[in-house]
Design goal:
By secondary structure, the chain is an alpha/beta fold. It folds into 2 domains: 125 residues, Leucine Dehydrogenase, chain A, domain 1 (Rossmann fold); 136 residues, Rossmann fold, CATH 3.40.50.720. It is built from 11 helices and 12 strands. Helix 5 crosses helix 6 and helix 5 packs across helix 9.
């Protein structure tokens, strides 16, 4: 077994609830693949206990943790230092503990870009305008990543314009707000809402105006093939499911905690898909 500093390394995911998270299965796969002496566990923590829980993990010698709903903004507040990426995203989903200090970053934007690049070889952010549906924390992280990578124009579409306007104001750059998605020249459409997720209404949107070769990405991964992605494939558009974002956003944290740079491949994807099924 591979060890770091001669002792087992511990990490986990903080959320409330957290039983639905696939992260323990994902990181467990990498731990076994690389023979790392470590463990990654679900850590259900009520919102009011979050700050004390994180400090307890530091005292217990954890290497760090992922953070999911509803703790991402609280995680940002508790950090001793945050990365520039986290500042742009306005939230933290990855904590690293070093010498008693709490460092935070956001890997959601990285995970999204890597998932599209993997699914659509040759895709470039600068290929054309992007449209994002929604205005949640993950949307802000993805929007920041797209802008920082050279997106020429980004349009946020949300039922509550004020939330989208706040993101646009904080991020700056070529960001527009709309109540209906401008798809006629969109090179990329991203669903950052819960619509289409199992148990939620389907996302009803007409993809006919999108130009040939455009990319449609869905952050939803349960079900893997949403009605939006099926409609995109039916029109010959390039479709990207939400599982890739989940897999790639986990890479930086695993490397920081366990000292190994993991890879995303078909074996990992099949392992996660078996659980989703």
């Amino acid at each position: 077994m591979r060890t770091l500093s001669g002792k087992s390394r511990l990490a986990g995911i903080l959320g409330w609830p957290v039983s639905h998270s696939r992260s323990p299965r994902l990181h467990g796969f990498w731990l076994a693949r690389h023979g790392v002496d470590g463990a990654y566990m679900p850590l259900p923590v009520r919102p009011e206990r979050f700050p004390s829980a994180v400090r307890s993990l530091v005292d217990l010698g954890f290497a760090g943790a992922n953070v999911t709903i509803p703790h991402k903004e609280a995680a940002f507040a508790i950090c001793d230092s945050v990365s520039d990426v986290a500042r742009r995203a306005g939230s933290v989903n990855t904590l690293v503990f070093r010498d008693g200090r709490i460092e935070g970053t956001s890997t959601d934007g990285f995970g999204f870009l890597e998932s599209v690049r993997e699914a659509v070889p040759g895709w470039r952010v600068a290929d054309g305008p992007a449209v994002i549906l929604g205005a949640g924390g993950a949307v802000r992280a993805v929007a920041a990543a797209l802008l920082d990578a050279g997106c020429p124009r980004l349009t946020l579409v949300n039922r509550t314009p004020a939330r989208a306007e706040a993101i646009a104001r904080d991020l700056g750059g070529p960001v527009e707000i709309a109540t209906a998605p401008p798809l006629a020249d969109a090179a990329l459409l991203v669903n950052g809402t819960s619509l289409g997720m199992a148990g939620e209404p389907a996302l009803d949107i007409d993809l006919a105006p999108m130009p040939p070769g455009a990319v449609v990405a869905d952050m939803v991964y349960v079900p893997l093939e949403t009605r939006l992605l099926a409609a995109a494939r039916g029109r010959g558009l390039r479709a990207v499911d939400g599982l890739g974002m989940l897999l790639h956003q986990a890479r930086p944290g695993f490397e920081a905690w366990f000292g190994v740079a993991p890879r995303v491949d078909e074996a990992l994807r099949a392992f996660l898909l078996a659980d989703l099924a």
